[in-house]
Amino acid sequence: MSELVRLTQARFTKDPIFHKLKHQTSKTNFKSIFTNPINFSISHKETWAIIGNSQKTEFLKILSGSEFAQPATSRLYPASRANPQFSVELLRFVNNGSWGHGAHDSSGGFTHLSSRYEFFKDLEVDEKVDKFIADINYNSNHVFNAEKVQRLIEGLNLKGLEDKFITTLSNGQFRRARIAKALYRDAGLLLIDDPFLGLDPIATETVSKVLKEVARSESIPTTLGIGLRVQDTVPDWVEKVAIVDESGVAFQGPKYTLEKKLKELKDKHDEEQALLERRINEKLQLHLPETSNTGDKIIEMKGIDIKYRGVPALKNLHWEVKDGEKWHVRGRNGSGKTTLLSLITLDHPQSWNKKISVYGVQRATGKTNYFDTNKFIGFTSPELHAIFPKKLTVFQTISTGYIVGSYIPPSADQLSSEQVEKINNYLHIVELDHLKDSKFGEISVSNQKLVLLLRSLINDPKILILDESLSGMTDEDILKGKSLINQWNKGCVLVIGHVDHEVPKCDKYILMNDAKDGIYDIGDA
Ligand SMILES: Nc1ncnc2c1ncn2[C@@H]1O[C@H](COP(=O)(O)OP(=O)(O)OP(=O)(O)O)[C@@H](O)[C@H]1O
């Protein structure tokens, strides 16, 4: 079997300076990503799962050619000798700036859903789904293979969406479109980190089936590797597993030989989780003051209808949310969950609707405005994560939660000593004190999401909106986030999440699967 990538006693660094000093020995200040040298290879049509926490992403990056190998020849792509067209691609859904729809990066001005709902579409940057998959606008060398695009659209259940602008897709739809685009290119080796992230259970099966076909088909040249977290189920079509930790590749081999090891890891992981939970809860009890919920009506929607180009997304929605309630907003990808929540945050162009009231104040009556409403609201979402300025420190990032509608942090003299103390307390509770002065863009993606969660609640919002806030995080960070929200006792909380494990305890749910037909299943969770 021909080897696609081979690592031999390979060490890696992010430090470009070291790379330039070719004659340095390893005794110099070599900042190695992993403590041990790595021996590993992937051959044509093997199927690999790379399992671990944030280290699995580092390893996938290394396999895709990022980071600096030492010595340079310790990482080789033998397949490229035989085939100069051979390419390796890494697809990530959570990374610095491209989780969501690749919205505008900004430090103010745009809201997190600007690119989705802005009225005029810029045809230079936005495109229809089929063109996006075939990369037509950006890659003039690509021939538009309509049959292949159609096959991918059907396989990935994107039928009916071909004619939409890519920025108007829901998160789950967009992720499937990105997978289609990656598969369209027929890379020699395609690495996908967290391929099932943010997908509902049906979409997860759909994607897994397509990947299985690619993995098994000899007529498709692509070899597949996927990145999974320790807690994830390894799909049946994966044959080989590498378990990655700080040391490097700790174990590797056929999946069946490592099943016992994986189970041990999961058990150990569960024990550590139990200890962590106890620790966090003790700290929370010290820092979170008792408050009593009033049960007052906070949000009221009376017969909301939302249509996109005449196609209903929400029909005749009646919904009430009271102080003290925690809601799980459920439903398949594309069922209207983000649309619903964006009406509350005023990001949706149709938010100024008299049928929506917050604290009894009707919208569109001139009695409220964007800033007054958003003073009550804290939120995190994949779109916010994608556009959040990466250069702020962790402390500054959280401090922007005190300001409505801006990502410019308040200066030191604009923050009271209580506000500073509160940020420090929360960082302490989730055990991220040591990252306080680190740049947001330089900490792990999982930690970034946890920091954005702290930002969302720092100003004690009456409405806390958590749109896929804990998805794709390490289990440790999920537990920290969940513990915080489980104990949270101010106002109401609205949570979107597809994986139960990533959803804090809720007492109510609204199921949106048939929202476009005006049918909602609302009940006690
Ligand atoms: N600006 C828009 N223009 C046209 N269609 C849109 C727009 N925004 C959303 N839609 C469509 O409305 C439907 C609901 O989208 P929404 O993002 O609310 O779903 P969701 O339930 O949050 O999905 P996911 O779980 O994938 O995030 C989808 O079919 C989506 O393509």
Summary tags:
525 residues, alpha/beta, Rossmann fold, 6-stranded mixed beta sheet, 22% strand, binds adenosine-5'-triphosphate, P-loop_NTPase, ABC_transporter-like_ATP-bd, Molybdenum_import_ModC, ATP binding, coiled coil
Tally of structural domains? 3
- Ends: how far apart? 52 Å
What's the CATH topology name of the largest domain? Rossmann fold
Number of H- or I-type helical stretches: 16
Biggest sheet strand order reads 6-7-8-3-9-10
Q: What is the overall shape?
A: globular
CATH architecture of the largest domain: 3-Layer(aba) Sandwich
* Distinct small molecules: adenosine-5'-triphosphate
User: Biggest sheet, open or closed, and with what strands and sense?
Assistant: 6 strands, mixed
| Overall CATH class of the largest domain | Alpha Beta
Helical content stands at 25-40%
Q: From the helix content, strand content and strand pairing, which structural class follows?
A: alpha/beta
Low-confidence parts: 96-111, 119-124
Please, what is the average pLDDT?
Answer: 87
CATH superfamily placement of the largest domain: P-loop containing nucleotide triphosphate hydrolases
- Beta-strand residue fraction: 15-25%
Identify the quaternary structure here.
single chain
Radius of gyration: 24 Å
Number of strands: 20
Structure notes:
The chain is α/β, with parallel strands linked by helices and 525 residues long. Helices cover 32% and strands 22% of the residues. The chain contains 16 helices and 20 strands. The strands form four sheets. A six-stranded mixed sheet has the order 6-7-8-3-9-10, with helices on both faces. Helix 15 (445-457) packs parallel to helix 16. Adenosine-5'-triphosphate (ATP) is lined by residues 116-117, 164, 168-173, 308, 313, 331, 333-339.
